Amino acid sequence: MGMTMTQKILAKHAGLDSVRAGQLIQAKLDLVLGNDITTPVAINEFEAAGFDQVFDKSKIALVMDHFAPNKDIKAAAQCKQCRTFARRFDIDHYFDVGEMGIEHALLPEKGLVAPGEAVIGADSHTCTYGALGAFSTGVGSTDMGAAMAAGETWFKVPSAIKVNLTGKLRPFVSGKDVILTLIGMIGVDGARYQSLEFTGPGVAELSIYDRLTISNMAIEAGAKNGIFPVDDSTKAYVEGRVNRPWTAYEADPDAEYERTVDIDLSQVDCTVAYPHLPENAHSAREGKDVQIDQIVIGSCTNGQLPDLEAAAAILKGKHLAKDVRGIVIPATMSVYRECMKRGLTDIFLDAGCIVSTPTCGPCLGGYMGILAAGERCVSTTNRNFVGRMGHVDSEVYLASPAVAAASGVAGHICHPEEV
Amino acid sequence: MNAQGTVHKYGDHVDTDVIIPARYLNSPDPKEYSVHCMEDIDKDFTKKVKEGDIMVAGVNFGCGSSREHAPAAIKACGASCVIAATFARIFYRNAINIGLAILECPAASSGISNGDQVSVDFDTGVITNLTKHETYQAEPFPPFIKDMMEKGGLMASLKAGKAGV
Question: Which residues does chain A have within 8 Å of residue B60's beta carbon, measured at their own beta carbons?
Fold first, then answer.
């Protein structure tokens, strides 16, 4: 029996010729990631267990992004604890305010993730790097702490769902709409414990940034990872970023899949996930009655330069509707700088938006952009759970940057064609 | 290994944001943040829950964020066990790593009501509903996980040099 792409990467990292779904393996890791919320717990576990060295100081990445720039004294203490740990062990990839970005945008940008690598991160959206053909998955802090010491971890080899992509995206439709459509089809636990393996001629029609968005939200279908084949777009992206040898893996022709889901990209329309689950997918054309109070454009899901360009294309020469607040957050410092250079920042400011330095802040209701009872936000983030962005009686509607921008101008959910 | 207590029952897709909202994640100390456990969907949970009580829920319990603070908060509140029809994978892994007992059992999830008295035998996977006089069979932990839990979790196993499979 052949192996899926994920299974091949896991087999290689476990030093085995082959693995099968359900098998428990011990795999070596190419990178271990943590942020300012999960790393302190990992450090406490690491130290309580009495470890006094890390497995490889060049294979640990610590990114201060969730509550940084520090939102309060306690958050400052957490970042300080991470910084002290990073200095103690001379961690190469420690990113603090000024050079940090939102972790899952930053690591690919810095070339810290390459095709064929195995990565764990104490953050559920670590699955983002599947876009580059890597195996990556989210874990908890204890797993992270143990992996910082051992450089390896245990996995149950996942079975897989094949997502067969055909066709080409229509104008205004993006990777965000594809993943919200898929989650709407299979549900928030539709891929629980499984890999989502994207394949088919439609893959070539998706930019690497569309793929990053799609892989990022694989977890919202319960998946362990969401992975794309390595093609010319992948190679063009990693060239000049990754300075070490890497391997492109391909699924065997006889690989076993639990099922196949077909998506014709030309049939995908701008999609909005209504509260309070990412599976509540609706067409953006249905949203005229949903008045909104805020838009957020950014996050690990949609804070890359093409995301901000898509939003700016809608907002150029327009202004947010009365009483709508707009928060734009470039995901990394280089995206932030490019926004200024290319005039996007001016477009956002002219439209009445604020432009923040990178942070996860509003996405998880941490700080900046918190909603009051009864308020609604169209957000390019990844979760719309109860209380996710503030009060338990507030509402988050998940959408693409183009839909969020259009909705901000209209004052209600709307399709970009309508503004 | 056994548990017995009063059941606190919840529905499907209980996510880690409602188990412990992110606004309280500015502390890594379970004693500090666990006073807010479940408050967004059950504001009196921390007042009601007693040492040894059992949480029962539907499908996909613990979906969402990877925050280990979620199982840690439940454990710090005194709950002895979570029984659900299914668990999200990161939560499942985290619960095992920190030593919060969890069992997947769709029959128990649908059969047990809020307030029932329930006992659990972790060695056999048998769940007994003392209120309704019913039993349900859950899958016991696979040997690798049972071994890890008996050693005191992932870190203790790693220190013993036996966390590998």
Answer: 188-189, 192, 222
